[in-house]
Amino acid sequence: MRKSILVFFLILGASLSHAQDKNKTVTFEVKGNCGMCKSRIEKTAIKIAGVKFALWNVDTKEFKAIIDERKCSIDMVKKKIAGIGHDIEGYTAPLDVYDNLPACCQYRNPESIHMNHGKH
Amino acid sequence: MEYRDGKENIALPDANVYWLSSVVGTTTDSSGNFKIPYRGDLKKLIISSVGYRSDTILVNRPDLGNIILYPTVVLDEVVVEKQVAPLQKSLFKVQNVVSVDSREMLKAACCNLSESFETNPAVDVNISDAVLGAKQIQMLGLNSPYLLFTQENMPAIRGASQIFGLSFIPGSWIEGIQITKGAGSVLNGFESISGHINSELVKPIIDKRFFLNLYANNFERYEFNSRLNHNLTDNLATGLYIHANLRNGNIENNGDSFQDTPLAKQINFMNRWQYLNPENGWVSYATIQYLNDSKEIGQLDFNIDTDKLTNNNWGSEVKTSRLDLSSKLGYVFPELPYQSFGFQTAYSNHSQDAFYGLNIYDINHNSFYSNFIFNSIIGSTQHKFKTGISLTYDSFDETVNSTNYNRDDNSIGAFFEYTYDNLEGLSFVAGLRADMHNNLGNFFTPRFHLRYSLWDKASLRASFGRGKRGANIFAENQQLFASSRQIIINPNDGNYYGLKPEKAWNYGISFMQKLYILNRVLDFSIDFYRTDFVDQVVVDWENPREISFYNLEGDSYSNSLQIDVNYEMLQDFHIRATYKHFDVVTDYNSGALEKPLQPLSRFFVNLNYETLQRGEQQWRFDFTSNWLGKQRLPNTESNPVEFQLPPYSPSYMLINAQVTKVFSNKFEFYVGGENINNFTQNMPILSGNNPFGPYFDSTILYAPVLTGTYYAGFRYKI
To answer: Distance between CA atoms of B139 and B38, rounded to whole angstroms?
Structure first.
């Protein structure tokens, strides 16, 4: 039993040390306001082939993802998220997409932070 | 010009000073002074400065003296909070789950797990028999052996502890309960058929440091509950939990010469260790529980020293000691939050020595359980899976009068469960396990749950699954010993007392809608479940001289329909109403019959009101009413007329109520009553005056034996 646990950890360790490109953790800031933004950002990210995990923090605006760099790139993820209306440094959301966001998600308007964001 | 800072006035430079409705103005100098030309047509001077409330002053003299400005009051953020209801049905979980938290357990006397379901409509609480009065629960019209109990996701209350096990878990140790209707998950084994109830115990790291509860009722039942927790480091804590109860008053109010409720003693002790380190990802629990319980009941004149196993007087004693050891080890990969593994092991020894009149029933059950689970994803967190292996070993050593039954069960199984979420409202969980079992054979267990969002705040769920188990016929129907019924087993080449195992499919569909009505949430749900037995051990009470066990020939099914409405009618006034309808039919040797002692319908209402907190003080009121429709009674036609019962019981109502006064966050006091409308069964024991005669039977119990029970208690916690 003890031996098999050891073997398990050895295999695990080997796969983790080998996994740099397979499980790359990326973090960057994504502009947004509320729970609806969170859902939109995370859904868009996770549906990109190669994105394994996506999490956006409403309070800190920090976006964290684990990506398989063989299948996608950080640049691709940023482009997609900006493409659905959320600004990222170096990537600006298209105005028409941004304007179509619900009023409470229009983070460029300082008033929007005071809006009722509902429980979405 | 000055402003006020605390008690001191300080000069305010650079404040704006101007005449009302003009453009003539100036500012104050560095020492706060100003001069402004006077104009006869302008009477009012406005003084303003950023961060201060502006002031308007009527000018009627040349020197205005000290003018004091006050800072703009900045209100702190006002947080409006709404507490989550203590009973929650999620719109988003794939399974049909009701989550109950510890606050719900404060709504009833809730001395132990069996009583904690009394304010909860998903589960029905029944009393096993008129002698021992053990509370048992049912789901979907099926008795507790068909549902899986787990304690912290490890199987519990099974085998030998089937009848009394619920009373071995004190309510005050429970942090929360999750009730899953229908097939359940493949992770916890193959036995569950109608549902899965998981109870989570309090956790030493986050639990209160100290908790004390004392309780007493008018039938001389006393309870003591205490919890003590200590954090040894930031990551390691231990808890010591003690429960004791005592009932030492002889209660006999209905004239049948039998005590209405047992004399009882229980000491229950638990020590838990919890290790939690979010930085390195390890979490671990180790728990030891020891219990010693004894119940004594019988005729008032029964003296255990002289009358045991004689026909001087009828009496019974059930002595149980139980040891539980369990450990859990979990690891979350710090870099990969979606990947983790868990390893659980549990060992228990349950030893019961009992006699019921002239019947002896002893059981010794040793059980070992071990489960390894690995969680990860396939590609992305839209596709999750859990997989692992489990090992179980159970040994039973039973003495039924002069017959010995020994049986060992062991199994090894592997499972795989896949969860898909399309993030647009469709998700499902598909699970399969394969087990090799020495008595049940090699078999697969499929389970499937699906959830779909039809529209906003509405969920449609469907599930199906199969369960398989061997019936421990004596342990599960222990009340049969408190009767003169002869035990008959019709063997069928099976491994369980000669009987074949039980196997059933369960199918369910449910719909839930949350709505806002007058700005308050209303949730409505309706569900329908059907259980179809492929194989069953039929427990046949239809001949009043016998109880027989045989394998099903023909059909056996249970249909259950439940409709729930929860609504906050007024601020902090909640109503919970439920209607249930059951259709449970089995082909007995004597023909197809409804399951005995099963109400055809039930109606449940719970009202709860909490006053606004004033300081830390609060009143809480809770009222529960249960209406039970008629129940078919086992056939008693061959008894003499005085021991015959009608084919159906009357319908009746039970009312419980409780008032809690919270004096502070540390101390609260409660009083309450159960069965306050005093409904009792007319003749709970047949032939109670002649308990060694052929017609003695305490098993046909459809209503309480005890009249109104009134209790009081307090809770102290820091």
So the answer is: 88
